[in-house]
Amino acid sequence: MRRLPLVLLTTALLVAACTVPQQRTDETLGKVAATPQEIDAVFERYATVRDTAARLLSPNPLSIIQTEAVLDIETGSFEMAQRLAASDPERDDPIDVQRTYTPRFGSYPLWFVAVVRDEGREVTRVQVFERAAAADPWLLIATPETVLDAELPDLRERDGAVVRVAADDDAGTGVSAQQAADDYAALLADPEAEVATTFAEDGFVEQVRAAAEQNRALEGVGFEQTWEAQEVRHAVRTSDGGTLAFVDLSRSDTYDVPDDVTVTWPEDSPQRAFIPEGLSTTGTLLYRHQVLMLIPVGDEPPRVIGQFGGVVGAEGF
Q: Which ranges carry the DUF8094 domain (predicted)?
């Protein structure tokens, strides 16, 4: 804790007239989300439970270490492995935490960011763990992945804590994290959207569009894909004044098949896992995606530098 300097004044009148600066307290600054020791314990518990789930070939234990989109995506990956009679889902190598960033908070929920290196899968995960209340456990709520040696932006820290950014804050960047998330969903839904030129090109968009074109090429089958950005709840300031935002996206792939047609997919595809008998009616596959979005300061366009996602369910089959 920093103590403000106390200036001694020689004139009694000035001493009486001036207010002595007060020392800032933890209450004034807010509480750091978690200590290094607490974070170590979070990852130790996470590794134990994740390994148990992989050994059991069951997503059930994951609910005590994960939540929301991460839990949905991981559960979907387990279900795919089971339905396709594949080997057990990929088990992570020992967790190698490269760096952690802890913001300050005046109230719950609390959260912190961790950069985790996975040599086995050749990816780096940028993760957010959140604690909803004092009596609740820390749960993994975001885990977008980027290439192993990707250069991640430095984050701004003040008083030993990373600086949070509100979802509607567009200071320095010209666009808020929420607006960028909504625009990115519009871009994914429609390549001709007006916002298409406001983002830097990225591999995730190319991958999504290639898959959508394959689905639209199915003879006699109608295909529609929709996207929606969720509320942005985790964003931090980069050292140069930009924003690094964790964005959750919901995706729906709807197929409309004529009565006299049955569509089947490759053995290892999510469609085959959730529609094993093929499709002869109308139905929708549901996906969740998480992207790590860098919104630079100035005129440089936002870009996605990491992603994680997958199929989470099906409707109408």
A: 33-316
